[in-house]
Amino acid sequence: MVSLAGGGFLTIWPGDDAPVTVDGAVAMPGIGSAIEPEQAAVRRVVLEYAGGMETLIAHGSVATPGILAAFDLASRHWGRVSWQTLFAPAIRGSSGRLSAFLCGARGGVLGAMDTMYQRGKIQEESMYYEHKKHDGSLPIIGVNTFLGGKDPQTEGGEIELMRSTDEEKDQQVENVGIYRSSHEAEAAPLLNELQGTARRRENTFEALMNAAKVCSLGSMSHALYEVGGENRRNM
């Protein structure tokens, strides 16, 4: 298992019995329904990345990881110890390293966040390579620049850049406003709980998952920004 957001197949060979394969692949919304693929709502999107690239977005673009469900099924049917016992050594071994990684003597991740080190470093490296690409000291071959050697360089056709219309943008803003209004009473205590969890420096994953049921991404981001801003000297 590479990460919690993964999928795959788990094969168990239980003693003298035949091998069993557990399906832990990602689950696509709507799978097994009567909707034919050509009837699904598919939207063509053109991104600015790499000079313009096209992709399709539909219900299949979102999938639920199945790896944990596969391990859970295997544990309940063939496991001999509880998950708490199974993962205890790994938790004990990683707790000290995780604390050092987050709050080490050199600042760790939290220190880097407070000083905005990561953002500054990315900007510095970006400027460095942009200058080298501009003056020719670092020829880039790939999506940015292509040099054809002795052959005459050919110019590609103009790539159409598709953007949302003002009407589509306004409609989306209106949709979010309606969603917030309809869940206002439920969202307030969950956002407060999310902020409290962040202030206590506890794991915010569960609080985020609960808040996401009735809160928009903007509401959750703003709630966390308010908490983060309290502890950042340069904001």
Helix-strand makeup class: mainly alpha
Overall pLDDT: 75
The percentage of residues in β strands lies in 5-15%
Count all strands and give the number. Answer: 4
Enumerate the strands of the largest sheet in spatial order, edge to edge or round the barrel: 1-2
Shape: extended
In N-to-C order, the SSE pattern is: EEEEHHHHHHHH
Instruction: Indicate the percent of residues in helices.
Output: 40-55%
| C-alpha-based Rg, rounded | 25 Å
**Tally of separate helices:** 8
Q: What distance lies between the first and last C-alpha atoms, to the nearest angstrom?
A: 39 Å
Low-pLDDT parts are none
Biggest sheet features: 2 strands, antiparallel
Summarize the entry for a quick read:
With 235 residues, this protein is mainly α. The chain has eight helices and four strands; from the N terminus they run E-E-E-E-H-H-H-H-H-H-H-H. 48% of the residues lie in helices and 9% in strands.
Can you offer a commentary on this structure?
This protein has 235 residues and is mainly alpha-helical. It is built from 8 helices and 4 strands, in the order E-E-E-E-H-H-H-H-H-H-H-H. It has helices at 67-78, 83-103, 108-114, 117-135, 166-182, 184-199, 205-211, 217-230, and strands at 8-12, 20-24, 43-47, 53-57. The strands form 2 sheets. A two-stranded antiparallel sheet has the order 1-2. Helix 2 (83-103) packs across helix 3 (108-114) and helix 6 (184-199) runs antiparallel to helix 7 (205-211). It starts with 7 loop residues before the first strand and ends in a 5-residue tail after the last helix. 7% of the residues are buried. The model has no long low-confidence stretch (mean pLDDT 75).
